[in-house]
Design goal:
Elements lengths: L2 H25 L4 H16 L10 H23 L4 H8 L2 H13 L4 H20 L6 H23 L5 H23 L3 H7 L2 H28 L2 H4 L5 H14 L5 H19 L2 H5 L6
Helix pairs in contact: 1-4, 1-10, 1-12, 2-3, 2-8, 2-10, 3-7, 3-8, 4-12, 5-7, 6-13
Length: 290
């Protein structure tokens, strides 16, 4: 890729890494499921007037709204209310190897020795994180694993669905996710509307940034890069996302700069890189986590 496009790819990953930190600030002021609903409502309001879907596409969009909107982002936002931003970004990155393993099981794709080594390294990296002081408690950890699983399943759905433009998928899946999230918020949260009256600029920034910068702008540039260049040239930049999230969490939120976190993160990301090295196609057809 030319230098300009490399810088664009890096800018996208920086935007995603900052998104984790900004969401962390937002869920401190607005209930996380309700915040997720507001995020998707803004995305839908911006995109829906310019896109249309067919009846054939609708069931697939509904599936993505559940696995990506409700499961991946909804559970990620809830977990971020309890977990460090950098650690959460690292654990959610496991969605990539989970997608690869599921593809091997469901689509009979060969796994191979390199992928097996990568999977072992990813598990080792989590084990090192677990031995340190920054691993979240049992509930947020499970939520992050389910969030990663939701992202992985979304990749498999996108792999099988009929042709739908990324912008159309983003807008309509966001719209359909909103009532699901509002219902979940009504059941599990309280004080949602009151929180909007007391929220500072942190809370409002998290809604606008997550919707406009991270979702629409960053993913728009990402898909443009994927259309222009080979997958192998673009996708590796996404591996910087959790590492940058750790750095931003330490600098902006005062997260614990524990050496064990960086060691565990690097080992886990090395494993993920080995897993993706032979099967980038599955991962690239859907949005990376963030």
């Amino acid at each position: 890729m030319p230098l300009k496009d490399k810088l664009l790819a890096l800018a996208v990953v920086v935007a995603w890494a900052l998104n984790i930190v900004i969401i962390k600030l937002g869920v401190a002021e607005i209930p996380p499921i309700f915040l997720t609903a507001l995020r998707f409502a803004l995305v839908a309001a911006i995109i829906i007037p310019f896109t249309r879907i067919t009846l054939r596409q609708l069931p697939w969009v509904v599936l993505v709204s559940i696995t990506f909107g409700g499961m991946h982002f909804g559970l990620l936002f809830v977990a971020l209310s309890e977990a460090e931003a950098g650690t959460a970004a690292i654990l959610v990155q496991l969605g990539a190897p989970i997608a690869t393993v599921l593809a091997c099981l469901l689509f009979k794709e060969p796994f191979g020795l390199i992928r097996m080594l990568g999977l072992a390294l990813a598990v080792l990296g989590i084990g090192i994180l677990a031995a340190g002081p920054t691993l979240p408690g049992p509930l947020p950890f499970v939520l992050l694993m389910l969030s990663a699983f939701g992202w992985a399943v979304t990749n498999l759905i996108v792999k099988q669905m009929p042709e739908i433009s990324p912008l159309t998928m983003t807008g309509w899946s966001s719209l359909i996710a909103v009532p699901q999230l509002l219902l979940a918020s009504a059941v599990f949260e309280h004080g949602q509307w009151e929180s909007l009256g007391t929220a500072t600029w942190h809370g409002w920034l998290s809604i606008v940034y997550s919707a406009v910068i991270s979702s629409i702008a960053a993913y728009g540039v990402w898909y443009w890069l994927l259309r222009k260049h080979s997958i192998n040239a673009v996708v590796p930049y996404s591996m910087l996302n959790p590492l940058l999230s750790v750095i931003f969490g330490i600098v902006m939120l005062g997260d614990t700069p524990a050496p064990v976190k960086l060691v565990g993160a690097l080992i886990m990301l090395a494993g993920v890189a080995l897993i993706l090295r032979q099967s980038p196609t599955i991962i690239a057809k859907s949005e990376p986590a963030g």
